[in-house]
Amino acid sequence: MSTPEPSEHTPQPPPSGAIVGVQFRTTGQIHEYDAGGLPLRCGDRVVVQVNRGTSLATVVVAPRPAAGREAAALPRVIKRADAREYAREEANLRRAADAHRICVHRIRERRLDMKLIRTECVFEASKMIFYFFSEGRVDFRDLVRDLAQTLHTRIEMKQIGNRDETKLLGGVGPCGRELCCSSWLREFSSVSVKMAKEQGLSLNPSKLAGMCGRLKCCLRYEYDTYLELGRALPPVGGAVESVKGNGIVTRHNVLKQTVIIRRDEDGVDVEAMLEDLVAKKAP
After folding, report:
1. For the chain, which residues score pLDDT lower than 70?
2. What is the CATH number that goes with domain 86-163?
3. CB neighbours of 186 closer than 8 A, spacing ≥ 6?
4. Is 42 helix (H, G, I), strand (E, B) or coil?
5. pLDDT tens, 101-138?
6. Of 280, 209, 213, nearest to 249 (Cα)?
7. Domain coordinates in residue numbering, the chain
8. Sign, Cα dihedral of 8, 13, 14, 20
9. Is residue 277 helix, strand or coil?
10. Global pTM exceeds 0.85
């Protein structure tokens, strides 16, 4: 009697020393872990080693064979999560919600200039982390002592910026879709007004700013493409000769690969493709 072939949806035991990528939260950094011989696949919840104990994580990169002793230097995946870990996670979420309400009340009592964004309880319930936003520095030492006495656990306060606040809270952007930072963007890249200029966008601050009040992250997505396509076009202000008349380049249409020329003979603006340009005149 022949053995049935395994289904493609059935997780196969990875080779000894296999490596997986895990995330601790949505859009968080991907960390590599030694999966050992556990049969894991993307989407599995696992218990992993962290600096001071264990934590729950989600497998987002399927197991791959380790090269040489590559897995030896990595922390271990201890086990696949079961009902006990899920129950502990639910209890931690309830503890974090209660702690959040208490912290908000204490902040209002002390009239501290800070906005509490999120509260997290670590997996082993040994520490409570409070994420807050503030324009300046805040003396929260009394607040930390009060919370430690009330909650009977270690307290950590983390001040975050505008972008991190929006990433944690989430929302819908002007494009009508969920914000990139809270749905898939793992890390922030630098964005400048130069990127908007290169793409010919209006420099209206209200249109360039995202939900966080900073320049939209999506300004970077097509920036390199615009740079690459723009290299083939004559510079704005340069004199050119074309089959449609000679003149000065006033602006570009990068995606169409055309230029707008103000003709010397009558001052009329005409659109010319690269194939229409005869030769560049000396400035």
Report:
1. 1-16, 279-283
2. 3.30.300.20
3. 27, 28, 29, 30
4. coil
5. 999 999 999 999 999 999 999 998 899 999 999 999 99
6. 280
7. 18-81, 86-163, 190-231, 239-280
8. positive
9. strand
10. no
